[in-house]
Amino acid sequence: MLFVHYPKCSTCKKAKKWLVEHELQFTERHIKDENPTYEELSEWLKSSGMPIKKFFNTSGMLYREMQLKDKLPEMSENEMLRLLATDGMLVKRPLLIDGSTVLTGFKEKEWEEKLLNKS
To answer: pLDDT (tens digit, 0 to 9) for every residue of the chain, 119 residues total?
Structure first.
């Protein structure tokens, strides 16, 4: 399981604590030091079944500075993936990848359903 996070992010800290408390094994990756690549993002997007907008950190400063709320509707999925691959601070975090399971952000109930209640 890959846990992509920003260590200073309070939501990421909660998510990491949750993973440790539930004794789930994971590999950590600092999203700013090692930004997800275009190829990774493309693969995760396909696996997740989510719309690409869910991969954007819409509450981030960089998102607002770049006025992406207005620009994204005009962009193709390919352009959005390329943009996400330029800076980890644009990517919604934490990201958790476990095989075909891809989770963006930390919603405890969703993580419980996807990670603890696997049959």
So the answer is: 999 999 999 999 999 999 999 999 999 999 999 999 999 999 999 999 999 999 999 999 999 999 999 999 999 999 999 999 999 999 999 999 998 899 999 999 999 999 997 64
Q: How many CA atoms lie within 13 A of 112 on its CB side?
A: 4
The answer to whether 9 and 93 have CB atoms below 8 angstroms apart is: yes
Amino acid at 45: L
Angle 77-84/38-48 helices, nearest 10 degrees?
120
Q: What is the DSSP code string of 3-49?
A: EEE-TT-HHHHHHHHHHHHTT---EEEETTTSPPPHHHHHHHHHHH-
DSSP 31: T
Beta bridge partners of 102: 97
Q: Is 8 helix (H, G, I), strand (E, B) or coil?
A: coil
pTM given for the model = 0.93
- Residue 84 CB-density burial (10 A; 0-12 exposed, 13-18 middle, 19+ buried): buried
